[in-house]
Design goal:
Elements: E1 2-5, E2 8-11, H1 12-18, H2 23-39, H3 47-70, H4 72-79, H5 83-110, H6 121-138, H7 148-166
Antiparallel strand pairs: 1-2
Helix pairs in contact: 2-3, 3-5, 3-6, 3-7
Length: about 170
């Protein structure tokens, strides 16, 4: 499938093939797997697992939106996409999930976690560090244009804020 926009050829299939390598995709899959487990009746899911999945996704959404706004031109050049596709992708994969998580993610999952199965902040942080570490080990920042000295701190800061937000004694 090809479309032409502002004299720029965009191969949407090629772009879609790169999506599984993006960090936000990893976190969406992890959070989605937790939601599927809950939908299948796994009420005994540990709180630390859904908290970690949601913290990773929230951190990726925040970092992704920040990076899209800082590095929009290099991203459009690297992936050969027009600004409209970049903005649409940011909206669908970063902003909408971010709003859904902030609006009702924690309330919904609290109803599906057993009170005696809370897990701990340390478990949550270990899961977050493992998932983020595996991604960095295999893909590092190769998928993203921009200086890794800027990208990595953005990701670490947004994930730290997200861990705090979804922590057992967090704000919500």
């Amino acid at each position: 499938m090809r479309c032409i926009h502002q004299n720029m050829k965009v191969d949407l299939l090629q772009l879609a093939c790169k999506a599984p390598l993006l960090y936000t995709t990893w976190t969406i899959v992890f959070a989605g797997a937790v939601l599927v487990a809950v939908a299948l009746g796994k009420r005994s899911i540990r709180s630390s697992i859904w908290r970690a999945a949601y913290a990773l996704l929230l951190g990726a959404c925040i970092a992704g939106t920040v990076m899209v706004n800082i590095y929009h031109k290099p991203i459009m050049e690297k992936y050969n996409i027009p600004r409209s596709i970049l903005v649409l992708g940011d909206l669908v994969f970063h902003i909408v999930p971010l709003l859904l998580l902030l609006w009702g993610g924690k309330k919904m999952m609290l109803g599906f976690s057993q009170p005696d199965n809370n897990g701990s902040l340390w478990e949550m942080m270990a899961i977050v560090a493992t998932v983020a570490g595996v991604y960095m080990w295999f893909l590092n920042t190769a998928m993203y244009p921009g200086d890794p000295r800027v990208l990595v701190p953005i990701c670490l800061a947004s994930t730290a804020v997200s861990v705090w937000y979804f922590a057992p004694n967090g704000p919500v």
